[in-house]
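Issue 218. Parser rejects a valid record. Input:
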Amino acid sequence: MNIGELARLTDVSTKAIRYYEDIGVLKEPARSPNGYRTYESDTVDRLRFVKDAQMTGLSLAEITTILDQRGRGESTCEHVMGLLDHHLHDLDSRIATLNKTRSKLVAIADRARELDPTDCVDPNRCQTLAPIDEPAEPGRDHGAPGEHVHAH
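Output the parser choked on:
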């Protein structure tokens, strides 16, 4: 089959197919007498696997290692489970970081709703964006003790 047919069957762009060839995810295809790429039917399965693996968060480099192992007739189950466990750990860490960030933003937004815009005194800084536990700088008018003011 030609590259256009492969692209239609796999919903992968011809540009991506060429890129996958360049980086070794796909083997260099045979060429017809007129120089066009010709692909074997097993390339459809390989590209579908690549798409499925990318959906789990695996990188193209990781996918290539899996395909290389399979190409050598080796089992990949243990390797894939290790990769997935690593990605799950990374994802859990990012989620924890995002949850902390969200909590801080909620607290800052809640504090901002209580501020009186007429108390804004600092022309260089929006006080609502200061961390909640940040002490006021000496010599600056930050409002009454415990009160945070909002600069425009």
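Fixed in the parser; the record now loads. Helices lie at 3-10, 14-23, 42-55, 60-71, 77-114.
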